[in-house]
Amino acid sequence: MRKYQVLISALVVFLDALTKWLVRSRIAFDENIAVIPGFFNLTHLQNTGAAFSMFADGGRRTTIGLILFSCLAIAVIVYLLWRSGGGLNATTIALALIAGGAMGNLWERALRGGVTDFLDLYVGPQHWPPFNVADSAICVGAAVLLVTIMFGKTTQT
Question: Known catalytic residues?
Answer without folding.
Answer: 117, 135
